[in-house]
TrEMBL record:
GO terms for cellular component: proteasome complex. PROSITE patterns: MPN (PS50249). It comes from Amycolatopsis cihanbeyliensis. The keyword Zinc applies. One of its GO terms (molecular function) is zinc ion binding. This is CysO-cysteine peptidase. SMART domains: JAB_MPN (SM00232).
Amino acid sequence: MAGVLRIRRDLVDEIVAHARRDHPDEACGVIAGPDGSDRPERFIPMLNAARSPTFYEFDSGDLLKLYREMDANDEVPVVIYHSHTATEAYPSRTDVSYASEPFAHYVLVSTRDPEEHEFRSYRIVEGVVTEEPVEVVESYMFAHTGSDDTPDA
Ligand SMILES: [Zn+2]
């Protein structure tokens, strides 16, 4: 299924800042959004329980708490992100085998370059990785893809 990740610039900045902060370990987290909206809204940085430069793992207790919280708010994990600190922003074989959310955008950030980051998004469904374009917007309200730029009042 081809798609696009439309995401607010401030959320991209938060993800990149988290990845830079935890470098050289991998950073990971979730951006939750309303069920059915495909709109990432609530930034939730998580702890990398593995504290590893080559692997990430959500703490199982934290994850359970987060899923309960999202259930209560009618939210889903729209974006699941983590960083690669020495390699490109592409899902590793381990990432693919652990990917269990077919409707999530799997975001990979690479911090291997201290100046420039890579920020890419994928769908991972039954072991198949499909990269999708990332559209960074200032606000979801004014996000248009056509030439008509007149915002709805
Ligand atoms: Zn990875």
